[in-house]
């Protein structure tokens, strides 16, 4: 009996060790934006210690309680350790919907500018999700690495809330967490939801911030990476200052930077941490035109130092 008990203890210890090894091991959703019009954004975080090839992944939508995917979006690009990849709706003009008799509004430029990747902007596509849709991040092999909400579950037009027993907002639209909200994954979450939950309890893994919040896009704080966070501002989820970069990806070796405060210095580093660009500014400069005539195509991190010594970091893609 003692031998059996010892083996049982060892089994559970080993099982716990294996489970621990799975955390911080694969991509997961770190932010969810369901805002006005087509301000629809999903942020994907890389908790691992290696760059990840996004061509091995797809985003899928399970619309209105569907148990099977209704649309999917193949991804491309690379996300480095501790960084994020922002996917947005790609509709940039208003479109008249004859069958519905209304105008489909475009994504706002500030949201679009934060994106690393955009869907086609033609309905239907996964990035036309609403608060009652489940979303998954899957490998092209079909392996689910993260689930937002619950597939095969229709909570009604107003989506899910944090109120038992149903966790459905129903007619109490003001209680919804998944419609007209921005959600940020809690820092202690180190892995995606790989098994469809019996009940989707949104407040367990997500924090809610105001509708149409975009300042937290482009960086994520997670216990998987305890060092400096790429793109992390000084304050919790709200960066001290906001910058907008366009066009990004850069196609003509020239980048415009708009800031809400005077900029003192801009630097650019490549994926292996080498400083490849540095420029200082004087006065109250808030709009900058940066030129990179000698840089190769690839992914870079741009670091902006403001006149008040605060900083902001973002990804820049040169094509």
What does this structure look like?
This protein has 319 residues and is mainly beta. It folds into two domains: 26-209, Lamin Tail domain (Immunoglobulin-like), CATH 2.60.40; 243-318, Immunoglobulin-like (Sandwich). The chain is built from two helices and 21 strands. Strands 10-7-2-1-13-14 form a six-stranded mixed sheet, with no helix packed on it. Strands 5-4-11-12 form a four-stranded antiparallel sheet, with no helix packed on it. Mean pLDDT is 86; it is low at 1-21 and 232-238.
In short:
With 319 residues, the protein is mainly beta.
Helices, strands, pairings?
Blueprint: H1 2-22, E1 28-34, E2 40-45, E3 52-53, E4 57-62, E5 71-74, E6 78-79, E7 84-88, E8 95-97, E9 102-104, H2 109-113, E10 117-118, E11 134-139, E12 144-148, E13 181-185, E14 206-209, E15 243-246, E16 254-259, E17 263-269, E18 275-280, E19 287-291, E20 298-306, E21 311-318
Parallel strand pairs: 7-10
Antiparallel strand pairs: 1-2, 1-13, 2-7, 3-6, 4-5, 4-11, 8-9, 11-12, 13-14, 15-16, 16-19, 17-18, 17-20, 20-21
């Amino acid at each position: 009996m003692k031998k059996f008990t010892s083996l049982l203890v060892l089994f559970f210890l080993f099982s716990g060790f294996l489970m621990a090894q799975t955390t911080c091991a694969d991509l997961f959703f770190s932010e969810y934006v369901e805002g006005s019009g087509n301000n629809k954004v999903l942020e994907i975080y890389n908790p691992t210690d290696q760059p990840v090839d996004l061509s091995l992944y797809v985003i899928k939508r399970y619309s209105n309680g569907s148990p099977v995917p209704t649309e999917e979006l193949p991804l491309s690009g690379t996300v480095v350790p501790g960084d994020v990849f922002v996917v947005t709706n790609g509709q940039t003009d208003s479109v008249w919907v004859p069958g519905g008799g209304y105008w489909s509004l475009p994504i706002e430029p500030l949201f679009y500018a934060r994106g690393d990747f955009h869907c086609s902007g033609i309905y239907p596509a996964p990035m036309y999700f609403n608060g009652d849709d489940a979303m998954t991040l899957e490998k092209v092999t079909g392996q689910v690495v993260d689930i937002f909400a619950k597939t095969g579950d229709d909570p009604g037009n107003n989506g899910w809330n944090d109120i038992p027993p149903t966790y459905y907002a129903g007619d109490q639209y003001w209680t919804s967490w998944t419609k007209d909200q921005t959600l940020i994954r809690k820092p202690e979450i180190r892995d995606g939801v790989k098994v469809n939950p019996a009940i989707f309890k949104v407040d367990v893994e997500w924090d809610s911030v105001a509708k149409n919040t975009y300042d937290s896009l482009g960086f994520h704080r997670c216990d998987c990476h305890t060092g400096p966070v790429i793109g992390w501002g000084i304050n919790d989820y709200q960066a001290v200052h906001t910058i907008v970069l366009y066009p990004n990806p850069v196609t003509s070796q020239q980048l415009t930077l708009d800031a809400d405060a005077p900029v003192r210095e801009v630097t650019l580093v490549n994926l292996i941490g080498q400083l490849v660009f540095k420029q200082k500014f004087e006065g109250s400069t808030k709009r900058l035109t940066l030129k990179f005539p000698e840089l190769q195509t690839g992914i870079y991190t741009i670091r902006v130092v403001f006149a008040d010594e605060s900083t902001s970091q973002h990804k820049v893609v040169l094509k």
